[in-house]
Amino acid sequence: MKISPLLEGKGLISFEEITDYNLIDEKQLRLKKRKNSESVDPGVEAKKPKFLVKKNVDRKKTNKSKVKFSDEVTVGEFDKSDKQEIKIKKVKKLKNSKSKKAKKNKSHNSNSTSRLNMFKTDEDTENNFDQEDFETKMSAWFELALSKELLRGLYEKGFYQPMPIQKLVIPEAIKNRSNIIGTAQTGSGKTLAFGLPILTQLIDSANTNEFNKDTDSPAPQALILTPTRELAIQIKDHLQVCSKYKDIKIACVVGGISQLKQERLLLKNPEIIVATPGRLMQMIEEGHEYLNNIIRIKYLVIDEADRMIEKGHFSEVEKILGLVNKDDKVKTKRQNFLFSATLITKYDGDFDENKPKKEKTEAQIKREKRAKLNSLVEKIQMTKQPKFFDLTTQQVTAENLLESKIFCQLKEKDIYLYYFTCKYQGRTLVFANSIDCVRRLTNLFRLLKKTPLHLHANMDQKQRLKNLEKFNAQENSFLIASDVAARGLDIPGVKHVIHYQCPRSAEIYVHRSGRTARSTSEGLSVLLISPDEINLYRKIVKTFKKDKEIKDYPIDLDYYKSCESRVNLAKKIDELQHQLNREKNDSNWYTKNAKLMDIEIDDEILKETHVDDELVSKNRRKLSQYKQDLDRLLKQMIYPKFMSKKYLEPKNVEEILAINKSETTALNDFKNKINNKKKVKKEKI
Ligand SMILES: Nc1ncnc2c1ncn2[C@@H]1O[C@H](COP(=O)(O)OP(=O)(O)OP(=O)(O)O)[C@@H](O)[C@H]1O
Q: Region (Disordered): which ranges (predicted)?
């Protein structure tokens, strides 16, 4: 058996190791294969189970279950009664037994060859579909009981190995139809962990014509709820690509986009609806027939579940739950999935340094986790005990994420941000706490000719999507966003996440940072912390015990100084521009309204609102001068320390800039700093 690179070397467990398989089927397949020399007759194979089936064996009663529990992966059978411990399902540590591995690989191959014939389309036969390549690369998926059409889609996407959360959740969800609660780091593939089991089961029912069998009016089969529109669209696209070899219709019901268009798509009776709660509830209340039938859904997913059930945020979620839980029979049969990277990480303790510290005991933490899970189960009204998969580590943030910080004064933040975007190449995502701050930074960085993109909840939805698309498409794009972009968004190649302001909660820190270092890529997060944010910073550090992990980001002071003059000038321009606009708007407001109402303005008021023309033209001249100065500054190079001034001929500037940028990356600078510190420490010892 091949182990996912993410599992390798970490002593993590594999789901395959904890299941018992129906070996008779496997033997029969092998015998058949031998008889037919190369491949098994697809006709015969079709009558056999397509995948190895987990036997209904009570592990507790078998002697094979001498197992150890790995700290890093918790497979818990969650118990509703608060008094009982979370039952840990027995799991075996992965052993590197060669003979066992070889045996398994053999069985994979013999089994998969026969299945392969069914994956082929007519086009494949013409285009020489590489069966062997498919079989070798995809073998790790074969035991997860996925439908053949999905395997083909995954192969084309280059997803040759299931990620750990997928490896654990998928077979459990398909074979046992369990309710699932899953938590794993950001970028660890949770979407497909719930998406693939649902798609497989839908494909199976489509193949047996089971959709809407018992009723005349069609109904959605699955509902996926997400907190943001962008995330809903992303999930829809992701599932659609994976299921391209089977016509499973997926529709988005999200706000900010033409309702008419969505209604048209709903006329096609999509099996899966991915929705944000607000628009979904609105359309249901307006009496949309197909959506009203969500009371019959067979699969319910609540992504970013901790956010979705936050008090006061999503009253619509509760209304939707009220609807889907109306019919007891449907509710009992429904399969539920709850996922998030921060499902149980909330820190409710005290982070005030002046108060005595009370460390929680392991038992207390466990109790709290259980209580949180209990409340989730109750809210969703799961009738069957869920299986709980916790793949988060102590670090909580993604494994390949390097975390850093810069302590600075409030007014220095703009300079550090500019410093960063000038010094380093790579897609950069900046988070601010308020929409006003996003707007101000966008204006400022436009003046600095940094072509920033922006994203916040008060923007037109089309513009939001357009900006996200541009951020995706351009190589060194730079997006300034509010926390509407913090959760779930999967933008490839984001190299840096900068927290311009300290996030208000530790969970948001995890999600924001998780926009980089996704899947197997590396990424860097930089927290800019001003004195008034120290408490927020402490909260993050305490929640995740990260006091040693978040190191200072190294700053090149010469470079910083060059940035300072530009940013300060740009700020002056921004302020002056605002002042001029304000004055213009004020005087316009009075004269415009007076005209509209056909009244004469009192002389006194006119005097008060009168804009001093001379002052205005003086400010305009000043503004134009500042702009010219800034232009001149921006044309110069922010030269790195190691370069002498003789290189700074204007024609060489671009060239040098390119060389400079290709040599240094933010991650390398940070890693070098850490390594140098380690060296110094060693030398001292
Ligand atoms: N088996 C796989 N092999 C390779 N890449 C994968 C696999 N499964 C998912 N991915 C990719 O990994 C990335 C992260 O996946 P996904 O968006 O599902 O993460 P997530 O755990 O939901 O993250 P978040 O907590 O931020 O929402 C995506 O680009 C996805 O396409």
A: 94-115
d(CA 31, CA 40): 10
Q: DSSP string covering 74-127, please?
A: EEEE--SSTTSPPEEPP-PPPP--HHHHHHHHHHHHHHHHHHHHHH--HHHHHH
Domain 144-350+362-390, second-level architecture? 3-Layer(aba) Sandwich (3.40)
Q: Where are the alpha helices (DSSP H) in 426-505?
A: 435-447, 461-473
Q: What is the pLDDT of residues 86-118, one digit of tens each?
A: 333 333 333 333 344 444 443 333 333 344 455
Strand partners, 205: none
Residue 627 has pLDDT above 60, yes or no: yes
> Ligand 1: distance of its center to the CA of 339 in Å?
13
pLDDT at residue 233, rounded to an integer: 97
Is 514 touching ligand 1 by the criterion CB < 6 Å?
yes
Ligand 1 midpoint to CA 64 (Å): 34
- Beta carbons within 10 angstroms of residue 655's beta carbon: 11
Tell which atom from ligand 1 comes closest to the C-alpha of 162.
1
* Binding site membership of 195 for ligand 1 (Cβ less than 6 Å): no
- CATH topology match: 144-350+362-390 vs 401-555: yes
- Nearest Cα residue to 494 out of 508, 507, 481: 481
Q: What is the dihedral of CA 193, 145, 384, 168, to 10 degrees?
A: -50
- Whether 90 contacts 59, CB under 8 Å: yes
Q: Is 23 exposed, middle or buried (0-12, 13-18, 19+ CB in 10 A)?
A: exposed
Q: In the block, which residue shows the tokens 């015990």?
A: 545
What average pLDDT does the segment 374-382 reach?
88
Q: How far apart are CA 338 and CA 472, in angstroms?
A: 28
Ligand 1 atom, smallest distance to 511 CA: 26
User: Higher-confidence residue: 40 or 637?
Assistant: 637
DSSP 8-class letter at 265 = H
Strand ranges in 149-277 using DSSP code E only, listed in sequence order: 180-183, 222-225, 250-253, 272-275
CA distance 617 to 604: 23
Q: Are 537 and 580 in contact (CB under 8 A)?
A: no
Residue 189, ligand 1, Cβ within 6 A: yes
Is the Cβ–Cβ distance between 67 and 91 less than 8 Å?
Answer: yes
Q: Is the model more confident about 498 or about 216?
A: 498
Give the separation between CA 651 and CA 645, rounded to whole angstroms.
13
Q: What confidence score (pLDDT) does residue 152 get? A: 93
Helix (H, G, I), strand (E, B) or coil at 479: strand
Q: pLDDT band for position 371 (50/70/90)?
A: confident
Query: At residue 635, does pLDDT exceed 80?
Result: yes
- Provide the residue ranges of all domains of the chain, joining segments of one domain with +: 144-350+362-390, 401-555, 560-638
| Residue entry with tokens 């027995």 | 90
Q: Which two tokens stand for residue 190?
A: 């949770």
| Closest C-alpha among 128, 191, 181, 118 to residue 159 | 191
Contact 54, 127 (CB under 8 A): no
Q: What are the angstrom distances between the C-alpha of 369 and each of 373, 375, 452?
A: 6, 10, 41
Gap from CA of 172 to ligand 1 centroid (Å): 19
Q: Are strands 478-481 and 551-552 parallel, antiparallel or unpaired?
A: unpaired
pTM of the model: 0.79
* Low-confidence winner among 46-50, 114-118, 339-343 (lowest mean pLDDT): 46-50
104 with 1: CB under 8 angstroms?
A: yes
- Beta carbons within 10 angstroms of residue 247's beta carbon: 10
Protein fold of 401-555: Rossmann fold (3.40.50)
Nearest 10 degrees: Cα torsion 360, 366, 368, 370: 180
Burial of 437-461, coded b for 16+ CB within 10 Å and e otherwise, reads: bbbbbbbbbebbebebbbbbbebeb
